[in-house]
DNA sequence: AAGAGTAGCAACCGCAGCCAG
DNA sequence: GCTGGCTGCGGTTGCTACTCT
């Protein structure tokens, strides 16, 4: 196709670090005229920069809602979990961290967390593992393209913090529950329960992000959002059990609304009866409680 | 004190998706 | 349906500050 570049290199445009004056011009212009039309901004703001550069500077540095300062341990923890879930989808991860930019998170990951993760010997994750990093379970697609989480069902159990989940109090998540699941030791016990968990949504690709972002997410054939546990009975016959629950639809809502992290975390706790697998991925099974 | 090595971060680059014409 | 401009995203580069020898 060959599209003309955003800005050619020989137009006498400034490159490299931005000066305070350039920052001020850009900030003043956007305060008055708002974001958007990046291509026109340099000319109108009197900047010798390309529009792309202006956009980047604004989004990553000048925006007033940007949070400055070190990444907190809470944020770091969330980044790690989200990265395990999403991979290098920095903008999505940043969307869960108010005030942080994708560039900042990417840099933080590359300079700090990636090395640490490597040091902890985690082998590079396959696509499959990325969306289900839980040690003793795996994820696969069945012949009908359904997404199937296979493995220790206790991994999907979410131990409820006292007083955080009405759903838990009502026993909605009992299907996920088993004894001795809250301690790390239970994660590596000798005989994993291989009950598979089936999520009855049809997907073309194994990509949780797409599932979470899908507008028609998680409707079963009856039009309800419900959760189906695919189990194997004593005779080895596969069967689907509707285990009720919220909440993939709700999960999607939370996801798409981009709530502030604190609310998001605490409200995730509220709906873990239906969100077991996802919450497990996001928050682990031992230390997810905010 | 000085040079080399490293880490952190800002900015750049190229590609892909979206959408208006 | 096609084309091309705009925007957003992720990977990469390069500069600066800091640490080590």
Features:
Arc Repressor Mutant, subunit A; DNA-binding; nucleus; 41% helix; repeat; 290 residues; three-stranded antiparallel β-sheet; disordered C terminus; alpha+beta; 3 domains; Myb_TF_plants; Homeodomain-like_sf; single chain; two-stranded antiparallel ribbon; disordered N terminus
Give a topology summary.
Elements: H1 20-33, H2 41-45, H3 51-62, H4 73-86, H5 90-95, H6 102-119, H7 127-131, E1 137-141, E2 146-151, H8 166-169, H9 184-187, E3 197-202, H10 208-213, E4 227-232, E5 238-244, H11 248-257, H12 261-270, H13 272-283
The chain binds a DNA duplex (21 and 21 nucleotides) through residues 1, 3-6, 15-18, 36-39, 51-53, 55-57, 59-61, 88-91, 102-104, 106-108, 110-112.
Region (Disordered): 157-193
Pfam families: Myb_DNA-binding
Biased composition (Low complexity): 170-186
The number of distinct β-strands equals 5
The Cα radius of gyration reads 23 Å
Number of helices: 13
Order of helices and strands: HHHHHHHEEHHEHEEHHH
Provide the low-confidence segments as ranges: 1-5, 121-290
**Main beta sheet strand tally, sense and closure:** 3 strands, antiparallel
CA-based shape: elongated
* Secondary-structure-derived class: alpha+beta
Average pLDDT metric: 53
Q: Count the domains.
A: 3
Short description:
Keywords: DNA-binding, Nucleus, Repeat. By secondary structure, the protein is of the alpha+beta class.
Description:
The chain is of the alpha+beta class and 290 residues long. It folds into three domains: 20-62, Orthogonal Bundle (Arc Repressor Mutant, subunit A), CATH 1.10.10; 73-119, Orthogonal Bundle (Arc Repressor Mutant, subunit A); 127-283, no CATH class. The protein has a three-stranded antiparallel sheet with strand order 1-2-3. It is built from 13 helices and five strands. It is elongated, with a radius of gyration of 23 Å. A hairpin with a 5-residue loop joins strand 4 (227-232) and strand 5 (238-244). The N and C termini lie far apart (50 Å). It has helices spanning 20-33, 41-45, 51-62, 73-86, 90-95, 102-119, 127-131, 166-169, 184-187, 208-213, 248-257, 261-270, 272-283, and strands spanning 137-141, 146-151, 197-202, 227-232, 238-244. The protein binds a DNA duplex (21 and 21 nucleotides) through helix 3 and helix 6.
């Amino acid at each position: 196709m060959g599209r003309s570049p955003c800005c050619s290199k020989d137009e006498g445009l400034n490159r490299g670090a931005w000066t305070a004056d350039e920052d001020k011009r850009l900030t003043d212009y956007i305060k008055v005229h708002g974001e958007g039309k990046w291509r026109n901004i340099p000319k109108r703001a009197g900047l010798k920069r390309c529009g792309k550069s202006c956009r980047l500077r604004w989004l990553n540095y000048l925006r007033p809602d940007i949070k400055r300062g070190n990444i907190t341990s809470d944020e770091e923890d969330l980044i790690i979990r989200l990265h395990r879930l999403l991979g290098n989808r920095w903008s999505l991860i940043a969307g869960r961290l108010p005030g942080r930019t994708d560039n900042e998170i990417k840099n933080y990951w590359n300079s700090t967390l990636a090395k640490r993760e490597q040091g902890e010997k985690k082998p590079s994750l396959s696509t499959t593992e990325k969306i289900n990093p839980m040690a003793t379970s795996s994820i696969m697609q069945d012949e009908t393209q359904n997404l199937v989480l296979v493995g220790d069902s206790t991994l999907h159990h979410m131990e409820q913090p006292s007083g955080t989940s009405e759903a838990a109090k009502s026993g909605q998540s009992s299907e996920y529950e088993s004894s001795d699941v809250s301690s790390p030791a239970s994660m590596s016990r000798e005989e994993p329960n291989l009950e598979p968990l089936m999520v009855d949504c049809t997907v073309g690709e194994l990509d949780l992000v797409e599932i979470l972002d899908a507008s028609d997410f998680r409707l079963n054939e009856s039009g309800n959002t419900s959760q189906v546990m695919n189990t194997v009975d004593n005779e080895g016959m596969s069967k689907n059990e509707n285990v009720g629950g919220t909440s993939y639809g709700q999960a999607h809502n939370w996801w798409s609304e981009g709530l502030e992290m604190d609310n998001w975390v605490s409200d995730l706790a509220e709906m873990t009866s239906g969100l077991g697998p996802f919450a497990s991925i996001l928050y682990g099974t031992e230390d997810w409680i905010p």
